[in-house]
């Protein structure tokens, strides 16, 4: 041994490789790490963390990049500063093999999902369609000249694939058992192939004839590099003619210079516009029409993607803040756009799935959820500046690190509420608050930064973080599909390597215990009115810096819009939210609260904390009690009266507000007797026995003094016990689909039984 055992990984090492110059080596392990070593000293140069076990590693031909394959994804790092360049969601299972083409322009991967994929190594886009086996792929190797690859599979075959055409070469090489490994002879043309199977057999194949036949079929493809200089010479000789440009465009496409091909295509079109020959004009016009159709399809995909995107986003590559127009312009001028345009132009009809996939990948964004500090960078502080070059002090560092983490995760765009909203623009602020839930919902990733959770914290630190007490963070952890928690030093909380902490049992249990929110809500939350009282309880212990925000932070949870009026005070903002919930849903459980009544409306609480007590479930009867009651009613009440009452209750209108007054369908019971009962706490509250027509006797404890009376000692006043009618008692649907704007509601005609 040179160094003895290089002990660093904590679990199985699945893959190793040397850099092209032999000075470094890389190892991938089941412990979710890739380690780069100095091959001369055995020193660790860097440890790169993944999300799952690393099955394959490979250096690029120039040694400047390192690719790794794990469960689902391929990651590419720079080898000088270890910056993450690409994070490709590549497969549906473990990536068992990964290789580079000799020119470094393509990555090829093979997986247990039975698929071989080809990737553009500069942007991570998939090239062409996948190549498919019928069972697990165990091994992948590329020829020395890069013209073809070989794959070995559990389907008992070895298959050859052309790396330019991305098609299978000839018939598969059949074995008698699953094939575990494969290799190609190192001579330039790779004339021999060797494979090993699960039965212990080694197979040696001559593939010279197969490759010769494949080369002749792809000879036209190989002529493109030779055709390009000829086309350019034709342009020099006749610059006013369209012919040279028409020849140059497919040649550029053939050598995958798509951006240049677009510009040449535009020039060709301008030249052909002046050609009088109808035989030339007709195909030209068809080609132009096809290109316009493709451009329109791409633009529609962009508009659809950005419909639920923030108005402004930080470009994690340039560090600059971009509005919607700048984001689109960035895409239109990118290599991703030119590659997408020309690759799509090769297929008819339009491949909308591929177009949407490419657009989604480019415009995916990362959201930040955090506890605001005293001085956060605002829009004017970073506008027209590179955030990476700002003086790294205070909260600027937080913004810089957030953008770096998002960029290293493979995302081009990032959003922070501190600087991506123009707080001075009332219209933009209104739109942002009402759209924020959707922005988090449609984000590719939400990063939660816990500034008060120190490095290497144990379980429980999240529950004690101030982040868990803030009003806005309720929607910020319920809305996203994928979320990651970071500690103060920007390391993952609990060192959890999962790509989604919503799948971490330990973290989810901590959130359930600390918030009281059911685990199912974290992974499958749906905004809306249903369960309004429970949702209000979630927010009842939350606080916000601006008092009105305790209401505004909940609009996304309930799926409603609310006019934002800072300065209206908490009671008004909360009152408007609650009255909209009640009016739209018909759910009166929002009236189930304990505390001080609101000046906005006495039926509503003054503070969200009034919902801290769990919702009171309606009293339930046993099956025997129900049957007894039904039998008694059957003998005393006519069926016609029962049906009439049922119809009347069914047709009662929904609760509604007008001019801040609540019109609430109720059932009134005349009070026949009120008698004070002995109580231990008679200084602050009293307990009364109340008898009514139609109800069992009740005990009511209150701080208010009630007038005592009875049939033997009557009074002139009439007292009624009011029970608000709840449609859910009959399991009737709510009114959410039959909504009516508060402002459009007319004043009720009668105010009888108005329990304000």
Largest sheet: 7 strands, antiparallel
The DSSP helix count reads: 21
Strand content: 15-25%
* Radius of gyration, whole Å: 35 Å
| Strands side by side in the biggest sheet | 5-6-7-8-9-10-11
**Average pLDDT number:** 84
* Measured distance between first and last alpha carbons: 88 Å
Give the class from helix and strand content and strand pairing.
alpha+beta
Give the overall shape, derived from the CA principal axes: elongated
Question: Low-confidence parts, pLDDT < 50 over ≥5 residues?
Answer: 217-221, 737-756
> Helix proportion of residues, in percent?
25-40%
Number of strands: 30
Topology (elements, then pairings):
Elements: E1 13-18, E2 24-29, E3 33-38, E4 44-49, E5 56-59, E6 65-69, E7 71-78, E8 84-100, E9 106-111, E10 115-120, E11 131-132, E12 137-142, E13 148-153, E14 157-162, E15 167-174, E16 179-184, E17 192-197, E18 202-206, H1 208-217, H2 219-222, H3 224-237, H4 243-254, H5 258-272, H6 278-306, E19 312-315, E20 321-323, H7 324-332, H8 335-345, H9 352-363, E21 365-370, H10 379-382, H11 395-408, E22 413-415, H12 426-441, E23 445-449, H13 473-478, E24 483-486, H14 505-515, H15 519-524, H16 532-539, H17 549-552, H18 555-558, H19 570-585, H20 623-636, H21 639-650, E25 656-658, E26 661-663, E27 666-677, E28 686-692, E29 698-702, E30 720-724
Parallel strand pairs: 21-22, 21-23, 23-24
Antiparallel strand pairs: 1-2, 2-3, 3-4, 5-6, 6-7, 7-8, 8-9, 9-10, 10-11, 12-13, 13-14, 14-15, 16-17, 17-18, 19-20, 19-22, 25-26, 27-28, 27-30, 28-29
